[in-house]
Design a protein that fits this description.
By secondary structure, the chain is mostly helical.
Length: 54
């Protein structure tokens, strides 16, 4: 949405979305996050070990 004031200056600011508070993750989501973190640590560790071995 482009608007101009009485001097012809273009007001080109973006519209801001409404603000909302994040919800605390459920126990199921927390366990999924822990599993994803463990998989990420395993992946990075294995990549580093392969890089050092090569």
């Amino acid at each position: 949405m482009k608007t101009t004031n009485e001097n012809g200056i273009l007001n080109n600011y973006s519209t801001e979305p409404p603000i909302y508070f994040a919800e605390y993750p459920s126990p199921e989501q927390q366990s999924r996050y822990a599993l994803q973190g463990a998989a990420a640590v395993l992946l990075v560790t294995s990549l580093l070990l392969i890089a050092f071995a090569a």
